[in-house]
């Protein structure tokens, strides 16, 4: 058939790249072509967007690897103190655009792929999100890695390489959330590097026998060993060579195949071992949190030992941050290594441990505090359970001899170790209770409250307490939250340990992803206006204050508003392409996107939407025509077993169906539930928002981080006086946020009232009663299906919807009124962005580095690192 027609780009460019000699094509083009040819073994004839994405990614990875190697060599040579961020979740999202931005190669690659016939924006869309996390906590870890590298700090992340990310959310015909697996690795992941040379053997089960020499040592043997294999993900800093590492562990059975079982005819048994070990990293949230913390510690210790420093200097060179309690078993694991393998005395080991670890708490909700059944731990990790009992005994000694402890001691080390065998080795726990009771006669409550082990059937280890006693510092994630940590869940430990152990580091977000990448037009306008290069303000975000005077400029406001409008259009296009729905763009965009949870009160929002709908319906057309046009967006996943949260989704979807189809009102009110919320979807939603909702019951949302993202992009905030909302208002001024609802100190009393002096909703909040009646009456179908959800409000109303509804509706009305004055609204928007500098994760990570970890920036020198 003769010569095939060259499908994309210019033939001579491709050919030049393939011959690798033509000086007229850029290095970028040559490298992409090279990967098409050799890594992918594909032909230009049939190369699709996905193939072009893959080749570009591999080419970018080459650049990252060079920097990564230099960074690591520099660290090895300088041997500075390092910090390790242990997190069960890293919600990285997509990588290509971020890597290009941080490397400063966006334009080169855009042009490079263009000359090959591709459009970079299309290629970026081909990348699958790395969704190894649930929500805020996991995304925070990702922002902190970005900032650590950008600040040139020697920080590595450690986590798990899940074979499946968080489930994909599908919404059924009747509005039900369905979960589908997310096999994100099935197309190969160009951003990871398998390190088959870095493996560790991790033991489970078996027996731990104490050595009876009074040393506290034990021998743990038997059971089953699992292999941990390292996969490295490069983390480039913005505008710096520093490229840090995120090391994720995969589990592999030690023996893939049991030949004995096979020969004995037990075919299933032969692969059984293999299956149970694989299960550890196969889904997000395995039952087993230990394996990766043990692998990470072994890796950290090996790296430390390579420096040749004595083990007692461990805390001078290593800080380990625990991202919530999920990695807390690292505490007994390091004790085990130091005592059983490094032959340290218990006291020395405890001294090292309590100067190495730092613990961040992310929630004060009692039901979310991790507890592990003692029998389970005894079975799976018998040695760790012994060590936890030893810590309990040691704690008891402190209770017993409080005078020995000076107020300025830095850790629980200055006491002689009381070996459990000296007491009752059968029940050291009882010894703890006895000792504590002796110290606080009559105050049995306090003692039961403070024990690392909660009484009950079964007994359970309180992981937050273990993390607290085993750490140098404990912090919350916003001012109010940290105060609540200190005055509620860890109050007894503040009394006992002193306040200096406790602190606050308000969360932050990376302005690279959450402004420059997701809102390129706004970023360009800011650079132009401030007359700064992007690098000059993206790394010093308080420079945004320079925008303040421009709020008074009409032309600047027009540019600002036009960008918001185009971001709405971009979102509307996205909804049309992905869902086939037409969203109007001449309306206010009101967004609530976060995990579905009762405390976050998506229910309050949807009840407010229904109230608005009923109000619109009740108006005469002439009155209605004066209404503010509004489109309400929801997105978020519910835990698969969280029945009430799933019902909320169902209600939202069915309300949307009714009101979007109502010709009387749908000019003024539209509602969308966007399925399968993700980092990438957030990047489209956030820049398009006029107002976003952060409306948790006061005292329940630790911080929130999307609130920061919306405000950074000039969206205003409607919220309760909770979490980081408070600090945002402090920065941008209360006149630029819309606050409503009861305050934290009132919550407990209101809950008490609900239980002991309930007032009928009809009486307490007639507007809400009307909304509930409409739902019950079947206006949104469902045949009574929503009753369990409505009953959470009618009975008990733990999250205070009946208390906050009226002030919520009033706040919504204030938002409408403010929006009517467009010029004033845009001023607020500009002023909000201008004052968001505090919320850069660069600020947050520097606080950790200086006040907690005591680490310094280690820039990669120019030239080759020798
Ligand atoms: C808070 N996730 C936000 C954010 O600090 C805060 C819990 C258990 C198991 C798995 N994941 C979790 C969280 O607890 C979580 O995401 N917490 C969030 O951490 C960062 O901004 O207020 O709810």
TrEMBL record:
Which residues, renumbered to this chain, carry the PTM N6-(pyridoxal phosphate)lysine? 709
Signal peptide positions on this chain: none
One record GO biological process = glycogen catabolic process
Gene3D superfamilies per record: Glycogen Phosphorylase B
Known Pfam families for this protein?
Phosphorylase
Molecular function (GO) terms listed? Answer: glycogen phosphorylase activity; pyridoxal phosphate binding
Q: Which domain of life is it from?
A: Eukaryota
- Catalyses which reaction(s): [(1->4)-alpha-D-glucosyl](n) + phosphate = [(1->4)-alpha-D-glucosyl](n-1) + alpha-D-glucose 1-phosphate
- What family does the entry list? Belongs to the glycogen phosphorylase family.
Annotated protein name in UniProt: Alpha-1,4 glucan phosphorylase
């Amino acid at each position: 058939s003769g010569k095939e027609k060259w499908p994309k780009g210019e033939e001579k460019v491709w050919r030049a790249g393939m011959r690798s000699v033509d000086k007229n094509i850029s290095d970028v083009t040559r490298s992409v072509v090279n990967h098409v040819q050799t890594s992918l073994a594909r032909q230009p004839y049939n190369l699709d967007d996905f193939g072009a994405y893959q080749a570009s990614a591999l080419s970018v990875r080459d650049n990252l690897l060079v920097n990564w190697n230099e960074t690591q060599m520099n660290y090895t040579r300088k041997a500075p103190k390092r910090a390790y961020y242990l997190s069960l979740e890293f919600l990285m999202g997509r990588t290509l655009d971020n890597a290009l931005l941080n490397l400063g190669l966006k334009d080169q690659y855009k042009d490079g792929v263009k000359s090959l016939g591709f459009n970079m924006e299309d290629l970026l869309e081909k990348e699958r999100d790395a969704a190894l996390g649930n929500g805020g906590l996991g995304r925070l870890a990702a922002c902190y890695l970005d900032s650590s590298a950008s600040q040139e700090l020697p920080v590595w992340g450690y986590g798990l390489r899940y074979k499946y990310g968080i489930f994909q959310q599908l919404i059924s015909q009747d509005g039900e959330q369905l979960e589908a697996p997310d096999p994100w690795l099935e197309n190969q992941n160009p951003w990871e590097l398998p390190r088959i040379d870095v493996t560790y053997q991790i033991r489970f089960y078996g027996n731990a026998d104490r050595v009876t020499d009074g040393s506290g040592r034990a021998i743990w043997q038997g059971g089953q060993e699992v292999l941990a294999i390292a996969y490295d993900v490069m983390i480039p800093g913005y505008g710096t060579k520093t490229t840090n590492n995120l090391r994720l562990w995969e589990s592999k059975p030690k023996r893939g195949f049991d030949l004995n079982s096979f020969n004995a005819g037990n075919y299933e048994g032969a692969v059984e071992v293999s299956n149970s070990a694989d299960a550890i990293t196969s889904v997000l949230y395995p039952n087993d949190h230990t394996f990766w913390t043990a692998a990470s510690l072994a890796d950290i210790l090996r790296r430390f030992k390579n420096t040749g420093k004595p083990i007692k200097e461990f805390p001078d060179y290593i800080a380990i941050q625990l991202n919530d309690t999920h990695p807390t078993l690292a505490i007994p694991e390091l004790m085990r290594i130091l005592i059983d393998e490094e032959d340290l005395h218990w006291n020395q080991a405890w001294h090292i441990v309590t100067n190495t670890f730092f613990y961040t708490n992310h929630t004060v909700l009692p039901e979310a505090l991790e507890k592990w059944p003692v029998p389970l731990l005894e079975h799976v990790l018998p040695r760790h359970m012994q060590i936890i009992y030893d810590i309990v005994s040691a704690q008891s000694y402190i209770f017993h001899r409080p005078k020995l402890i000076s107020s300025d001691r830095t850790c629980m080390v200055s006491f002689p170790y009381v070996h459990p065998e000296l007491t009752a080795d059968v029940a050291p726990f009882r010894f703890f209770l006895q000792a504590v009771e002796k110290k606080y006669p009559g105050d049995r409550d306090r003692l039961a409250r403070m024990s690392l082990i909660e009484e009950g059937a079964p007994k359970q280890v309180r992981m937050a307490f273990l993390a607290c006693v085993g750490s140098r510092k404990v912090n919350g994630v916003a001012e109010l939250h940290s105060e609540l940590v200190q005055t509620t869940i860890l109050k007894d430990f503040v009394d006992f340990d002193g306040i200096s152990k406790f602190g606050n580091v308000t969360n932050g977000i990376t302005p690279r992803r959450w402004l420059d990448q997701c809102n390129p037009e706004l970023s360009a306008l800011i650079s132009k206006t401030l007359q700064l290069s992007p690098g000059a303000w993206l790394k010093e975000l308080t420079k945004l204050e320079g925008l303040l005077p421009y709020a008074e400029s009409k032309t600047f406001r027009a540019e600002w508003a036009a960008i918001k409008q185009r971001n709405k259009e971009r979102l509307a296009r996205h909804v049309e392409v992905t869902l086939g729905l037409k969203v109007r763009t001449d309306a206010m965009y009101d967004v609530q996107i976060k995990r579905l949870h009762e405390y976050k009160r998506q229910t309050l929002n949807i009840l407010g939407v229904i109230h608005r709908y009923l109000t619109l319906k009740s108006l005469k057309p002439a009155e209605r025509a004066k209404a503010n046009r509004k489109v309400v967006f929801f997105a978020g996943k519910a835990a698969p077993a969280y029945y009430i949260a799933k019902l909320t989704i169902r209600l939202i979807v069915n309300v949307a169906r009714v009101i979007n189809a109502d010709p009387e009102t749908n000019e003024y009110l539209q509602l969308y539930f966007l399925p399968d919320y993700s980092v990438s979807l957030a990047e489209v939603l956030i820049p398009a928002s006029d107002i976003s909702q952060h409306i948790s019951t006061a005292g329940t949302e630790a911080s929130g981080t999307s609130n920061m993202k919306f405000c950074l992009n000039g969206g205003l905030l409607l919220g309760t006086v909770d979490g980081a909302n408070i600090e945002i208002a402090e920065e941008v001024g209360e006149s630029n946020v819309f606050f409503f609802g009861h305050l934290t100190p009132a919550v407990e009393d209101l809950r008490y009232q609900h239980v002991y002096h309930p007032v009928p909703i009809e009486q307490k909040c007639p507007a809400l009663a009307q909304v509930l009646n409409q739902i019950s009456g079947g206006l949104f179908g469902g045949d009574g299906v929503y009753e369990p959800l409505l009953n959470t409000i009618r009975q008990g109303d733990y999250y205070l919807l009946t208390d906050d509804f009226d002030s919520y509706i009033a706040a919504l009305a204030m938002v409408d009124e403010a929006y009517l004055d467009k010029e004033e609204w845009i001023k607020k928007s500009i002023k909000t962005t201008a004052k968001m500098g505090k919320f850069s994760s660069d600020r947050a990570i520097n606080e950790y580095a200086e006040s907690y970890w005591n680490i310094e920036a280690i820039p990669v020198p120019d030239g080759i690192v020798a």
